[in-house]
């Protein structure tokens, strides 16, 4: 595996004749989530293709007061993980190699989608992210670029940029990797104390509570709607309420409302409890959005949505999300 630190060396990296070049962009501090991305790139590129991993802590996507200075830099360990996962080359440039003229005056704008959720909390973050992704796509010239679904808004914006600006690359999303307790893998997890980690687990619990509510609510609605008349439907709901009075009381009471509202309610309940933990989970946002533009879904929404959450525990800010499918109903 080659270690490359200049654009000139990268341009001289020969492409394989028979397979695609796949790139995995990281900010270092690699963990199993990154390794999964690299292994997925290796699989997509095949034995005759090429996998390039970039390691670059991009200052443009850190705002004032964020953790740029303390963001972990572990290049030696990163190289071992990349090598074991199947990378052919690692491009690890210095800041002045990526931005040779200093702070760039021309940047990519994330547009309205970049001002929502993460963008509202971290102004300018997505402009900085898209700017460096655009530069790295130009420098690495891949056929495929793989990104984790854990950063769902980032993935959506990269896909939109590639489409809007006609980048000749296929963007591939890779499912979130979680630890055994459900916490989504993140380079920032290492900042958490044992107590903070216990509080942080509420993020994934909230998402799965929303997922479970969707499944239960949809099942209840399907059973109730199977009755051909309104009177019989009411009776069906009553029978369901008797049978599942303990487990499904809330779901039955909300069976006539929009499923998105029920999903949000279930997730929010978990987060409200976590706000009373020691240390508390301080919620930034909980949102159920359309992945095409990250606007809130309506009560009658059908199709794929993303349930996303962001919160701070101690001094560490974490994000997580899961995809949900809302089926058509009558």
Automatic annotation (TrEMBL):
Positions of beta-alanine binding: 61
Keywords for the protein's UniProt record, in alphabetical order: ATP-binding, Cytoplasm, Ligase, Nucleotide-binding, Pantothenate biosynthesis
Presence of the UniProt keyword Membrane in the record: no
Binding site for ATP: 27-34, 148-151, 177, 185-188
GO biological process, one term: pantothenate biosynthetic process
Active site: 34 (proton donor)
GO molecular function: ATP binding; pantoate-beta-alanine ligase activity
Entry EC number(s): 6.3.2.1
A single GO cellular-component term on record: cytosol
Function: Catalyzes the condensation of pantoate with beta-alanine in an ATP-dependent reaction via a pantoyl-adenylate intermediate.
Additional free-text comment from the UniProt record: The reaction proceeds by a bi uni uni bi ping pong mechanism.
HAMAP family cross-referenced by the UniProt entry: PanC
Self-association state and partner proteins as the record states: Homodimer.
Name this protein carries in UniProt: Pantothenate synthetase
Organism: Streptomyces roseus
